[in-house]
Amino acid sequence: MHISSDSTELLVQRREAMGLTQEDLARRTGLSVRMISDLERGRTRKPHPRSLQLLTTALELDPSDMARLASGRAPDGDPAAVPGPPGKPVAQVVVPQQIPMAARHFAGRDRELRSLTALLEHQGRHAGLAVIDGPLGVGKTALAVRWAHQHADRFPDGQLYVNLRGSTPARLGPDEAIADFLDSLGVQPDQVPAGLPARSALLRSLLAGKRMLLVLDDAQSAEQVSPLLPGAAGCLTLVTSRRKLVSLVAHHGAHPVSLDVLSFQDARASLEVLLGHSRVVAEEEATAELIKICRRSPLALSTAGAHAALHPSMRITTLVAQLPVQPGPHLPGVELF
Q: Which of 11, 99, 221, 247 suits a disulfide with 148, CB 3.0-4.6 Å?
C-alpha cells in the first residue's frame, strides 16, 4: 500500500484544522510521533493498513477522504474500504457505538445522573471511573445506559459495552471481555495476545489518547473489572454491580453511586410513560396501591406496567386485584404473571 503526496497534505491539513499537534495525534492513535512525522513528510511510502485506520478514526475523516489515504482508487462500489494486502479482505473503520437501547419509561434518578455528569469535569486530567451498585432490579443498567446516551457526544472515539454476567454461573472472564473489545477496536484475531496481562496492556495502549466510554455491566468483582480499565485521561468507565466493589473505590478512586428503590413520584412517572397519563390519573388510588405492592422497584413496576400496557382495556384496579400482596421474597413483582 502506497500513500500518495496529496494524502500527506490531507493528514497535515486535517490535523491542523482540528488544532492537534503531532504529539496529540500520537496519543489519540497510539502511533509514535516519529511515525506520524514520517507519514506527513512522505517518508513512509507503505504504511500498515491498521495505522491508516487509526489515523482515519482519530482525524474523523469521511469515507471519501479515507480512500485518498492510499494511492489509486478505492475498490469500485466501496469508497469507504481501506485496501489491504493482496488476498486479504479490505478493512473498514467503524467507531464502536455499542450502548444498548435506553428504556423509554426511565424516570427519576436526577441526583445520580448529575453525580455521573460531574465526572466529565475531570475528563482531560485522568481516566474516570464510577461504580453503580444496588440490588437486583433496582435499575443499575438502566441508569448507566441512560447516562451513556445522554453524553455520547462527549466520547467521539466510541462507546464500548459488555455484559460481564457476574451474577450468573456463565460469568465472563476479563480475558474474554478484553478480546471482545479488541475485536471491536479492529484488532485482528491473530494479533490478540494470549495472556491476560498482555491483552490488558494492548487495550490500554489502544485507548490511550482517546475519548471513549466503557460500560461494564453486571460485574461480580473488582478482579473481573480491573484489567479492562483504561489507564490514561480522556476515557470514562461505568461499572454496574450488585456488590459495592470497595476495592475499586479504594485503589482506583472510583466514584460510588448506590441505588435504592424509586420515590413514589418517580414510580408514578414511570407508570405514566407505560400506561399513559389519562389512564393513571383516572385511577389514582389503584395506581398508588400498585406502586405499594411493587415496593417502588423499577423492575417490578415495569413488569406490572408492561402487563397492563398489553391489555389496554384492563383497569388498574383489576390488575392490582390479580397481584399477591407479597409477590416475591427477593424482588417483589418480578414474577407477577
A: 99
Round to whole Å and give the CA distance between 44 and 179: 30
- Tell me the sheet residues that pair with 236: 128, 213
Q: Take residue 222 and report the three cell numbers written for it.
A: 473488582
* Phi, psi of 189, rounded to the nearest 5 degrees: -55, -40
Residue 90: C-alpha distances to residues 145, 201, 246 (Å): 33, 27, 45
Map 16-81 to HEC letters.
HHCCCCHHHHHHHHCCCHHHHHHHHCCCCCCCCHHHHHHHHHHCCCCHHHHHHCCCCCCCCCCCCC
- All three cell numbers of 225, joined, read 473489572
Q: Which three cell numbers stand for residue 299?
A: 423492575
Distances (CA, A) of 5 to 2, 35, 213, 302, 307: 10, 16, 35, 59, 64
Residues with Cβ within 8 Å of residue 119, at least 6 apart in sequence: 128, 130, 236, 255
330: nearest Cα among 135, 128, 73: 135
pTM for the whole structure: 0.71
Q: Which of 151, 147, 181 is nearest to 164 (CA)?
A: 181
Torsion sign, CA atoms 278, 279, 283, 288: negative
Q: What is the CATH number of domain 5-68?
A: 1.10.260.40
CB atoms under 10 Å from CB of 111, counted, come to 8
3-state secondary structure at position 3: coil
Tens of pLDDT, residue by residue over 105-144, are: 899 999 999 999 999 988 778 899 999 999 999 999 999 9
The mean pLDDT of the chain is: 84
Buried b (16+ CB within 10 A) or exposed e, 13-48: ebbeeeebebebbbbbbbbeeebbeebbeeebeebe
pLDDT tens digit sequence for 32-47? 777 788 778 777 656 6
